[in-house]
Amino acid sequence: MRLERSISAFSRARRIIAGGVNSPVRAFKAVGGSPVFMKAGSGSILRDVDDHEYIDYVLSWGPLILGHAHPSVIKAIQNAAGRGISFGTPTEAESQLGELVCAFVPSIERVRFVSSGTEATMSAVRLARAYTGRDKIVKFAGCYHGHGDGFLVAAGSGALTNGVPDSPGIPLGVANDTLVLPFNDEGALREVFAREGERIAAVIVEPYPGNMGFILPREGYLRELREVTARFGSLLIFDEVMTGFRVAPGGAQEREGIVPDLTTLGKVLGGGMPVGAFGGRWEIMSKLSPDGPVYQAGTLSGNPLAMASGIATLRILQDRSVYERLETTTRNLCVGLREVFEHHSIPHFMTQRGSMLCTFFTSEPVVDLQTALRSDVTLYARYFHGMLDRGVYLAPSQFEAGFVSTAHTQADVEHTVAAADVTLASLFSTVR
Ligand code: PMP
Predict the structure, then answer these.
(1) Which of 62, 160, 202, 262 has a Cα-to-Cα distance from 54 of 20 to 30 A?
(2) Ligand 1: which of 60, 61, 144, 151 to mutate, judged by most atoms within 8 Å of the beta carbon?
(3) Ligand 1 probe mutation, 26, 137, 145, 183, most atoms within 8 A of CB
């Protein structure tokens, strides 16, 4: 496949933008080759600058649950833009989106909007520290909570992809307040609480980790997290930036029946515009400035265009049958892919919940970072490029989740499964 224009666009970008990209994983370091520059998207399809089309399973890394350029979302943004782009005052749209958030996610009694998932998690942790009067936080190896200093310890996503889990530039003191545990390990959890429980402000967790591939919690594990944090007076923060409004209207907490103290949101919440949010129990949220002493602010927080996009998106998602359709499409995709991997005798472990999925190229169950890292990343890179050549855009790393939108059709699923079949057939004819 000729990607001339993408290649020259990347050389131009490298001269002016650090590393040629504004977020590291976009640079294709984990799969090799030059990143594909996109110029348009419609429904399930992305179009690159060389005019190739791809069925998109990245969806801007999760936000586009309705697909690219959904007419209702575009119209809402256009209407809002016509009335003014930013006011720096409260607007009614913020309360409108806030009411939707609280209706979708009942554990959220009060919410605050920010402009990214990173801001949401940073602010939630500050609030948890202030509320408990404690400093330490617990996170899980391979979970990613944005690029706040205290989170870049054994982090997933781009940090993992680039093999630099601990970034330089983070003061030792900050890193020391982050305790890292393996996900899905109840023993390690109990041990750290027995040792440090009185000093732990919060446990922050992606209830379905989606930044080391896509991993599911063992039965009872999230309940154990809830119980141990409650027992020690630590807060439980569910980072649902990825899973919120995605795996169910109320996120993973709805599916699992767990009530966290605080929740962080992003991605789908903004329908593709820069929006994040954090929220939870009223009594905790009341500590935030201006009601309380915990400072948090943002020039563009609650931006009218972003609110309009979020409102239009969530209104469509109020129809629960949307989630049934998403689940069916995603399940069909998984069934089709599994048959192909089995047919070609490829060791694989597949995970799926709602419209999120992942194929790990390993024969062992993947339950944490350690088992995820046993995946064959060389095979993944080849598979990725084979699929790209056949018009399927997958995440450019083994350690990312895949996403399906309401715009994906059964024909898209069939094309994807057929592309996987041809890709693996061609890979194995060259390997042997
Ligand atoms: N938390 C989770 C679970 C995420 O997946 C991400 C982004 N992938 C973030 C936080 C950070 O969000 P943002 O990139 O919008 O800062």
Answers:
(1) 160
(2) 144
(3) 145
The CB of 270 under 6 Å from ligand 1? The reply is no
Q: 262-265 and 276-280 as β-strands: parallel, antiparallel, unpaired?
A: antiparallel
Helix boundaries (H) for 143-218: 158-161, 172-176, 186-196
For a mutational test of ligand 1's pocket, the pick from 139, 140, 267, 397, i.e. the residue with the most ligand atoms closer than 8 A to its C-beta, is 267
Give the pLDDT of residue 71. 98
The yes-or-no verdict on residue 22 having pLDDT over 90 is: yes
- Are 272 and 308 a contacting pair, CB within 8 Å? no
User: What integer is the mean pLDDT of 16-35?
Assistant: 97
CB burial of 116-126 (b: ≥16 within 10 Å; e: otherwise) equals bbbbbbbbbbb
Give the integer Cα–Cα distance in Å for 29 and 35.
Answer: 9
Is 117's C-beta closer than 6 angstroms to any atom of ligand 1? Answer: yes
| pLDDT tens string 151-160 | 988 777 776 5
Measured over the CA atoms of residue 115, residue 121, residue 126 and residue 131, the dihedral's sign is positive
> What is the average pLDDT score of the chain?
96
Ligand 1 site, residue 121, Cβ cutoff 6 A: yes
pLDDT of the residue at 159? 64
Q: Which positions are annotated as active-site residues? A: 144, 239, 267
DSSP string for 353-368:
ETTEEEEES-SSPP-S
Bridge partners of residue 271, in order along the sequence: 273
- Cα 120 to ligand 1 centre (Å): 9
Going along 92-232, which residue ranges are E strands? 110-114, 136-140, 178-181, 200-205
Quickly state the pLDDT bin for 163 (edges 50, 70, 90).
very low
Ligand 1 pocket, residue 146 CB under 6 Å: yes
Distance CA 331, CA 348 (A): 16
Give residue 156's pLDDT: 74
